[in-house]
Structures are given as C-alpha cells and as structure tokens.
C-alpha cells in the first residue's frame, strides 16, 4: 500500500546518514592503516587535525546559536516525546517553540562534542590509541554539516520534509513509535496522561 511504501521510504531516509557514516569509517580506517601512526611527527599532525575539527564544530555551534537568537522564531511547537527504550517511562508531551527547540539541539551537539573530546583524550593519551583520533577528525565534521539545525540556520534550507520539526531520530532500527509524534490524537493522549499523573502526585 501507499502508506507502507511511504513508511519504508522514510526509514531509508533516516538510515542513510548512518549507512554513509559506516562507509566513511571503513574508508578512513583503510587510510589510517597506511599512515605511520608510530611516527611522532605524524601523531602531531593528527592531533592538530583533530583540534582543528573540534574548533570548526564549536564555531559552527556559535554561529548557528546566534542565527537562532536573531530569528527569534517563537512559533509554538507541540509534540510527544517517545518513552526511552527499556524503561517504564511514559511518552511525554513537550510544549515549546522553534527557537527553544533549535537551541536545545545546539546544546545537544555541544554536549556530544565535549563528551567525544574527553573520550578521545583518554583513548589517545592514556591508552596511546591514535587511529580513533584520526577517525574523529573527520566523522564529526561530516555530522555537524549534515546536522538538521545546522542545515536550517547555516545553509538556509527550509524546515520541511526531513528537516521538519520535531526532527526524526536517525539510529538504525527506530520504528515510527520511537519517533516524536505531532498528530492531535497523540498530543491529546499525552496531555491527558500528564494531567492524570499530576493528580496522582
């Protein structure tokens, strides 16, 4: 049927970034194997490349955050955030606006960057792994420029289709039930559940 076909297409669109990342990692690993990562001079260049990549990401986050604040788009955004996997939590109603939603996505990107930086420092300086540092000089750069909030505010793409808020998550295997829901029935149900929970408290 049309709906099942459309759902399949949506799943393919969501999976594409993950598949392209996997292929990119495989390619980078092949390149890394040809580098003499035991050579101190090569290691210095890898470190500089990694630091340059992280700096670019931070600059992009700063520019995007400024763009969001300048536009000050306070259009109401209501959606139901799905319950986290393997928990007893219930889906949660989120009542926000485009500006706050987009800024939250920038904060998520900054948090991921910081956590990745700490992990790489441990792997490199404590366990002397250099290959992951080389890989993470490239993958995060690709990810940041394909990031949906960056696409909207830095490249001026319209917030429609795959860039429509709330953004769909991209991990492989996510079903429609694990994506944010914006239909009236889901919002009404979540609002009712929220009020019921408040009364119980």
TrEMBL record:
Spans traversing the lipid bilayer: 44-65, 109-127
Domain of life: Eukaryota
Cited Pfam families: Pho88
UniProt entry tagged with the keyword Kinase: no
Keywords: Membrane, Transmembrane, Transmembrane helix
GO terms under biological process: protein targeting to ER
Segments of this protein annotated with the region Disordered: 173-201
Protein name: Inorganic phosphate transport protein PHO88
């Amino acid at each position: 049927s049309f709906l099942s076909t459309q759902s399949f297409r949506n799943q393919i669109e969501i999976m594409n970034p993950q598949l392209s990342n996997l292929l990119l990692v495989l390619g980078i690993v092949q390149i890394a194997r040809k580098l003499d990562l035991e050579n101190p001079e090569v290691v210095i260049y890898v470190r500089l490349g990694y630091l340059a990549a992280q700096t670019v990401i931070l600059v992009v986050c700063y520019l995007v955050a400024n763009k969001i604040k300048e536009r000050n788009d306070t259009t109401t955004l209501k959606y139901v955030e799905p319950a986290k996997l393997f928990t007893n939590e219930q889906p949660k109603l989120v009542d926000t606006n485009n500006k706050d939603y987009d800024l939250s996505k920038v904060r998520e990107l900054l948090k991921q960057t910081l956590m990745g930086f700490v992990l790489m420092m441990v792997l490199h300086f404590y366990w002397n792994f250099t290959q992951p540092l080389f890989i993470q000089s490239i993958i995060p750069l690709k990810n940041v420029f394909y990031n949906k909030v960056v696409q909207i505010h830095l490249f001026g793409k319209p917030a429609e289709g795959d860039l429509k808020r709330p953004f769909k998550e991209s991990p492989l295997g996510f079903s429609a039930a694990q994506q944010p829901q914006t239909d009236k029935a889901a919002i009404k149900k979540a609002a009712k559940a929220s009020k019921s929970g408040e009364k119980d408290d």
